[in-house]
Amino acid sequence: MDTILQFDHTVIFYIQQHFISSYLTPIMYWLSKITSAGALWILISIILMIQKKYRVIGLGMFISLVLVFIIGDQGLKPHVARLRPFVDFPEVPLVAPPPAATTYSFPSGHSFGSFAAATALYLGLSNICPTKRFWGVIALIGACVVAFARVYLFVHYPTDVLTGLVLGIIVGCIAWKIAKALWSWWTGRKNEVEYEPYTFKRKN
């Protein structure tokens, strides 16, 4: 535990001392705002679900975010109850408005949700439309930037976001498998229409 704390403190204070910039701060804060509560990822999943070709991908992303909410927000966060960095170190000046001090730090919900949704998107595009897999890579890179932003803004420790990264990838993979199974069941069910021979009337 001491090693983990030492790692967290070393990395987060190194970032505070060497990366804080008046040009970078608005970008980091904006990225955190648009991905808060999975807002950006939910929007993308809805846009994809509207389109029949990409509907199963959007479903996978949405399922991943539901799992993140259950596992992260309702499960791990209140049980681990780790205080945020700005609560542990109130003397450190914040570069942007923080979340409520009563919310917990582990794991990072932004990182968890971003990697879960981005992983589901990447796997979906790789299966459904490999030529557009590039957008899944962009989403994963975006998730990395979001994770960095949370440490940059002094609202999460590095291990919070690293745990979110690992859990997010796992949950994204699981969500994609669930989405594929549900989609196969639903489309198969729709196609299973039985008719009486030669009459083309539905069987009762």
From TrEMBL:
PANTHER family assigned to the protein according to its UniProt record, in alphabetical order: AT30094P, SPHINGOSINE-1-PHOSPHATE PHOSPHOHYDROLASE
Organism: Veillonella tobetsuensis
Transmembrane helix among keywords: yes
Gene3D superfamilies, per database record: Phosphatidic acid phosphatase type 2/haloperoxidase
Keywords associated with the record: Membrane, Transmembrane, Transmembrane helix
Protein's UniProt keywords contain Transferase: no
Superkingdom of origin: Bacteria
Start and end residues of each Phosphatidic acid phosphatase type 2/haloperoxidase domain: 57-176
InterPro entries: PAP2/HPO (IPR000326), PAP2/HPO_sf (IPR036938)
Region forming the signal peptide: none
Entry protein name: Phosphatase PAP2 family protein
Stretches that traverse the bilayer: 27-49, 56-76, 104-125, 134-155, 161-179
